[in-house]
């Protein structure tokens, strides 16, 4: 623990995949319907890291269980990585409860968490600051596709899902018939609007950021490069993420000229500030054919599985340990809230 800081009672807010699998209403649907939810291994690792830092972690869970635990014995700080369930604003559920009960918490506030889950809202905010985003439009019905003024190829994805849910290799489409099939699939499986964008054929990067305000800093930028696919056609899809050891290579630093990496990091940090992210986030971007980085999306609740989480992977490649990440998140939240 840092000198001059005190041990805290820290409650962990999370949603476990194995618990959600028991809910009867989730017995059907796409096989990735619970992709973004956490495992016991992630919760165990966070408890161990917080204990190592001298804190007193306890498991509060998510949903109703979190509310009941918070009312019965509010912690001094909530370490929030709960994804929530059921609505477009689900990631805002736990922090909204914390705000209502005046319990300090880590990560971004409810407004940022709700806005960033909706990919089009996040893009609109980022673009309003003069930052580059891909052209695209939201469609609610395949009949709306005829009005799109975009070139080919295109990519289709659910409007407000995370962890590449709904994004398959087939999501990249080259003609109207293929796009109509993808929109129909996504509409049926996820019951939400579909974001259709121009497909960017350049290199894909993800950028890890820690901190707040002027102290926010890029940990590293990581290139996500396909081992087998043509890079210009590569989609960081669910199939790839589930078989990442065979499908992709991660390069830190990216295999790009220094000025392009710098431009990508500057874009990521600017988007982090535009969306008012706090404590930590991971920003995804991709280069267009002219070599300009464009904002794709941001995850203000980045996965914290020490082995497979992209943030943890890129941090480890520059000597930032899992415990270092947890320390930075907690210290950022403490400083913000005077704990």
Q: Per CATH, which architecture of the largest domain?
A: 2-Layer Sandwich
The structure class reads: alpha+beta
Estimated share of beta-strand residues? 15-25%
Major sheet strand order: 10-9-8-11-12
Report the CATH C-level class of the largest domain.
Alpha Beta
Q: Specify Rg, calculated over alpha carbons.
A: 20 Å
Number of helices in the DSSP assignment: 12
Domain count: the total is 3
Spans of at least 5 consecutive residues whose pLDDT stays below 50 are: none
* CATH superfamily annotation of the largest domain: ATP-grasp fold, B domain
Secondary structure: helix percent:
25-40%
**Strand tally, please?**
12
**Per CATH, what is the topology of the largest domain?**
D-amino Acid Aminotransferase, Chain A, domain 1
Mean pLDDT: 95
Question: SSE order, as H and E?
Answer: EHHEHEHHHEEEHEEEHHEHEEHH
- Head-to-tail CA distance between termini: 14 Å
What oligomeric state do these chains adopt? Answer: single chain
- Main beta sheet: 5 strands, antiparallel
The 3D shape can be described as globular
């Amino acid at each position: 623990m840092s000198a001059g800081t005190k041990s805290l009672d820290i409650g962990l807010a999370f949603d476990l995949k194995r618990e959600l699998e028991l809910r009867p209403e989730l017995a059907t649907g796409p096989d990735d319907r619970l992709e973004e939810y956490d495992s016991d291994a992630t919760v165990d690792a966070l408890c161990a890291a917080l204990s190592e830092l001298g804190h007193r972690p306890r498991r509060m869970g998510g949903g109703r269980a979190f509310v009941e635990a918070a009312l019965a014995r509010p912690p001094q700080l909530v370490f929030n990585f709960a994804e929530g369930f059921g609505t477009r604003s689900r990631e805002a559920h736990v922090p909204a409860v914390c705000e209502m009960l005046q319990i300090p918490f880590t990560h971004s506030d409810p407004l940022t968490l709700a806005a960033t889950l909706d990919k089009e809202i996040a893009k609109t905010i980022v673009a309003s600051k003069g930052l580059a985003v891909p052209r695209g439009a939201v469609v609610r019905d395949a009949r709306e596709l005829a009005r799109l003024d975009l070139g080919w190829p295109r990519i289709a994805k659910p409007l407000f899902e995370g962890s590449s849910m709904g994004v398959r290799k087939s999501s990249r489409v080259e003609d109207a018939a293929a796009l109509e099939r993808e929109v129909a699939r996504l509409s049926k499986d996820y019951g939400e609007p579909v974001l259709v964008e121009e497909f960017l054929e350049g290199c894909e990067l993800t950028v890890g950021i820690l901190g707040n305000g002027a102290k926010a800093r890029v940990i590293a930028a990581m290139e996500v490069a396909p081992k087998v696919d043509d890079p210009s056609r590569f989609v960081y899809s669910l199939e790839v993420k589930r078989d990442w050891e065979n499908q992709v290579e991660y390069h830190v630093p990216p295999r790009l000229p220094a000025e392009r990496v710098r431009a990508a990091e500057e874009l990521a940090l600017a988007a982090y500030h535009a969306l008012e992210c706090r404590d930590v986030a991971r920003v995804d971007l991709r280069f267009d054919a002219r070599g300009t980085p464009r904002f794709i999306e941001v995850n203000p609740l980045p996965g914290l599985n020490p082995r497979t989480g992209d943030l943890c992977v890129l941090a480890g490649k520059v000597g930032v340990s899992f415990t270092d990440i947890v320390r930075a998140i907690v210290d950022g939240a403490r400083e913000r809230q005077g704990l």
